[in-house]
Design goal:
One of its GO terms (molecular function) is prephenate dehydrogenase (NAD+) activity. This is T-protein. Keywords: Oxidoreductase. The protein is mainly α. It has 2 domains: about 1-85, 6-phosphogluconate dehydrogenase C-terminal fold, CATH 1.10.3660; about 95-140, 6-phosphogluconate dehydrogenase C-terminal like domain (6-phosphogluconate dehydrogenase C-terminal fold), CATH 1.10.3660. The protein has 7 helices and no strands. Helix 1 crosses helix 3 (about 50-65) and helix 1 packs across helix 5. The radius of gyration is 18 Å and the shape is globular.
Length: about 140
């Protein structure tokens, strides 16, 4: 993969970085923090994980192999980052509410709304992830 230059206004770039960097890094941090405080052994999770979940755990672990100060700076860079992270928290709460209310139909409706938002990218990402998973599997041999 080579680099690609994308022409974009500075404000649009900064807005996109809120989602590409701050939200992603925060959610990865929160997932790792949560796992580290649970009564589970990472080695057992890895042993029982399918390739996609092993890759997800690898991406979480990768974050924690790096400089926490860098990630703190990215996440706290601007107030919009924290406001967007708050909306992620609300999405978690809304998602959990489907199950607290035993609302399978509501969950499926929301699932389909997200599927529609992703559009053709859903199938593209499914294919791309299969290739990535195969490459990850091959590198473990």
């Amino acid at each position: 993969m080579g680099a690609k230059i994308e022409e974009i206004e500075a404000a649009a770039h900064d807005n996109a970085m809120t989602y590409i960097q701050a939200l992603r890094h925060f959610s990865t941090f929160a997932f790792g923090l949560h796992l580290s405080r649970q009564p589970v052994q990472l080695s057992q999770l890895l042993a029982l994980s399918s390739p996609i979940y092993r890759l997800e755990l690898a991406m979480i672990g990768r974050l924690f192999a790096q400089d926490g100060s860098l990630y703190a700076d990215i996440i706290a860079d601007k107030p919009e980052n924290l406001a967007t992270i708050e909306t992620l928290k609300e999405s978690f709460e809304q998602g959990l509410d489907f199950f607290k209310r035993n609302d399978k139909a509501g969950f499926i409706k929301a699932f389909e709304e997200v599927h529609h938002w992703f559009g053709d990218y859903s199938e593209q990402f499914l294919k791309e992830s299969r290739v990535l998973l195969q490459q990850a599997h091959d590198s473990r041999k």
